[in-house]
Design goal:
The structure is a single chain. The protein contains 15 helices and 4 strands. It is mainly α and 406 residues long. It has 2 domains: 226 residues, no CATH class; 101 residues, abc type-2 transporter like domain (abc type-2 transporter like fold, 3-Layer(aba) Sandwich), CATH 3.40.1710. A 4-stranded mixed beta sheet has the order 2-1-3-4, with helices on one face. The radius of gyration is 32 Å and the shape is elongated.
Length: 406
């Protein structure tokens, strides 16, 4: 016999069950406020820890003041104050004009020497360049012949030697052209070159070096401070106190990143205003606020890298040895010291894939030098944000596993 299936009568919902969906949103908001409160309290703790370390504050102040000024004014890339010797075997009016045309600040006053002194003078480092003007130089020029002028170069410092040699060639060609033009009664040379230099009209290396030094110090100190903060707590066993508190790993990690980032960003922005703009008198074409916004994204990315290194190393010595090669690669291959275009193509793609620094350097150049606004620089900010998000996710996973054992 077939039995009729009996359907259970519909259950009546209680008032508590009816109102439960409406209560889920307030509960989520309450949990979110709890997370923010925990992060804020941990942030205050980290800021107090930084304030109680005067050596650390002095280091930050020095890195963004005198270190910036010294790097901008001392490590100059222009060829200046070059020592030049002249072997004048012609003793003509033209040869004297060439020797007198080597003027400061590019060259020191030319020193006349004999041909037999060339090797000994350069070996003794008296001169970086020695010019040899052959006999009958002026007569050959007037006769339409093409005499040779020999320039002896000490290429120990390659960049200085190349730039100085170019300047010397320009001086010699310029005085020979003026001499021939005046003798032949010509109005001027048939071609006039007009050069317009944008973004750095005087081609001062300090304009570039100062801002790039801020970026280098921003990277270095953010990585070191965030990683050292974690290592210090692990060495002093204070991290165990956090394990028994009602906090989650992401709150601890965010508090450390935000606290150190705030200190570094304030120092960097003050350095840009007072050291770069006021002390070094470097004009800033773009918006400092846009640069600050981009710096916030970049600092969070490199701070996550510092936390990651802090989870790999177990002592401060190990952290220092581990951070050194990472920072060197980050800074030397970022485009702040050498152009990205001069690197192998595969290395350019690699650095732009694994490091946020090349994107931030390009962003800083566009904003501070070229006056670019957000529609022109958002691709660099997006790249920094994506790489930073990857860093943060990997670091959070390792932070949970190493510190919380989960």
């Amino acid at each position: 016999m077939l039995q009729k299936s009996q359907m259970a009568p519909p259950q009546q919902l209680t008032p508590e069950q009816v109102t439960r969906p409406q209560q889920s949103k307030p509960k989520r908001m309450s949990a979110f406020r709890t997370h923010l409160a925990n992060i804020f309290q941990l942030l205050i703790k980290e800021l107090r820890s930084i304030r109680s370390d005067p050596i650390l504050l002095v280091l930050v102040a020095y890195a963004f003041t005198f270190a910036i000024y010294a790097a901008a004014t001392g490590a100059r890339t222009e060829a200046t104050n070059l020592a030049v010797g002249v072997v004048d075997e012609d003793r003509s009016d033209l040869s004297r004009r060439i020797a007198d045309g080597l003027t400061a600040p590019t060259f020191q006053p030319a020193v006349e020497i004999a041909a037999t002194e060339i090797d000994s003078s350069m070996e003794a480092q008296r001169f970086v360049f020695v010019i040899e003007i052959p006999p009958k130089f002026q007569a050959d020029i007037l006769a339409g012949r093409q005499p040779s002028v020999q320039i002896n170069v000490d290429a120990t410092a390659v960049a200085q030697a190349f730039l100085g040699m170019t300047y010397l060639q320009n001086v010699i060609v310029s005085y020979v052209s003026d001499f021939v033009t005046g003798r032949e009664g010509l109005v001027g040379v048939p071609v006039t070159f007009v050069t317009r230099v944008k973004f750095n009209p005087n081609m001062e290396s300090s304009w570039f070096t100062s801002v790039m030094q801020i970026i280098s110090n921003l990277t270095m100190l953010t990585v070191i401070l965030t990683g050292a903060a974690l290592i210090r707590e692990r060495e002093q066993s204070t991290v165990e106190h956090l394990l028994v508190m009602p906090v989650v790993p992401v709150e601890i990690m965010l508090a450390k990143i935000l606290a150190n980032s705030i200190v570094i960003l304030v120092a960097a922005q003050l350095s840009l205003m007072f050291v770069v703009q006021w002390w070094l008198e470097v004009p800033i074409a773009g918006s400092p606020l846009l640069f600050l916004a981009g710096s916030c994204i970049f600092v969070i990315a490199v701070a996550a890298l510092g936390i990651f290194l802090g989870t790999v190393a177990s002592t401060m010595g190990q952290f220092g040895l581990l951070a050194l090669p990472v920072l060197l690669v980050q800074m030397l291959l970022s485009g702040s010291t050498t152009p990205m275009e001069s690197m192998p193509v595969w290395l350019q793609y690699l650095m732009k894939t694994i490091s946020p620094t090349p994107h931030f350097v390009e962003f800083a150049k566009n904003v501070l030098y070229r006056g670019a606004d957000f529609p022109l620089v958002w691709p660099q900010l997006l790249a920094v944000g994506i790489i930073g998000a990857v860093y943060f996710g990997i670091t959070l996973h390792r932070f949970r596993r190493v510190i919380f054992g989960s």
